[in-house]
Amino acid sequence: MNLKRAFRVWQRHLSVYTKLYKSSIALNFVEPALYLAALGLGLGAFVKEINGVPYIQFIAPGIIASSSMFAAIYECTYATYVRMTFQKTFDAILATPINLNDLVAGELMWGATKSLLYGTIIIIVISIFGLVESPLIILVIPLLFITGLIFAEISVMFTAVVPGIDSFNYFYTLFMTPMFLFSGIFFPLDNLPPVVSKIAFFTPLYHLVNICRGLSFGNLQCCVWDIVWIIAVVILLAPYPFRLMQRRILK
After folding, report:
1. Which residues contact 225 (CB under 8 A, 6 or more apart)?
2. Of 16, 32, 71, 145, which one's alpha carbon is 20 to 30 angstroms from that of 22?
3. How confident is the model over 97-131, as pLDDT tens digits?
4. Confidence of residue 139 (pLDDT cuts 50, 70, 90)
C-alpha cells in the first residue's frame, strides 16, 4: 500500500464532497440536533438528572459519538457500495496506477474524515449551547478520526461481503441500532442485566461515548482504557477490509 496513492483516492472523494457538502452537512446535523432537542428537552423535563448531571448535558457528549459513527458507517456502506457497483468508480480508479490496497486505504481514510468532520460540528454546537464544561473536549477530535477508522473498517468489511445493496438492512438493524441504543448515550447501563454491559464493552461506540463524556466534564483519567481499547481494535481490524475487498473485487 502506498499512502501517497491512497491520499489521491481520499482527495478524489473530497473533491466530489465539496460540490455537495451544504446539503450533506445539513442532513447530518439535523438528525443529532433533533435527538438532542427531543430527548434532552422533551424527556429531560421528566428525567431531571442522571448521576447529578442535567439530562440534556448527560446525552450531549453521546450525540457527538453517534453523529461521528453514523457519518463513517453511511459513507463506507452505501456510498462505498454505490461507487463499487453502480457508478463503477472503483473500476475507473483501478485503471490508474492506484492498486486495490491503495483504494481501500483511501476509502477508510475518507470514512474516518467524515467521522471527524461531523463529530467536530456537534462539538461546536453543544459548546455554543453551554453543554460542555471542560476545554479538554478538544482532545476528542483526533480520537474521532481513530474511532472513525474502526467504523469504516467494519463497514467496508460488510460491504465486501453483502450480496446486494438491500442486505445493508441487516447491518443497520442487527448491528448499528442495538449499538446506538445500548452504548450509554441515553441512559447508564449499570441497571441493565450484566450481559448487556458486557456486550456493550465490545462495541466501539460505547468506548467513544465514554471518552466524549469524560472529556466533556474534564475527566481524562476515566478515558485512558477506552482510548487504549480503541487503538488496539483499529490495529486488530486493519487487515480484514483489504483481504475481504480483494476477494470481492478479484474473484
Report:
1. none
2. 145
3. 999 999 999 999 999 999 999 999 889 888 888 88
4. very high
Kindly state the greatest CA–CA separation across the chain.
59
Is the Cβ–Cβ distance between 98 and 8 less than 8 Å? yes
Instruction: Decide: residue 187, CB within 10 A, 0-12 exposed, 13-18 middle, 19+ buried.
Output: middle
Distance (Å, whole) CA 35 – CA 180? 12
Q: Are 116 and 141 in contact (CB under 8 A)?
A: yes
- pTM of the model as a whole: 0.92
Summarize pLDDT for 42-65 with one digit per residue, the tens. 766 677 788 888 888 898 999 999
Distances 19 to 16, 25, 88 between C-alpha atoms, Å: 6, 12, 20
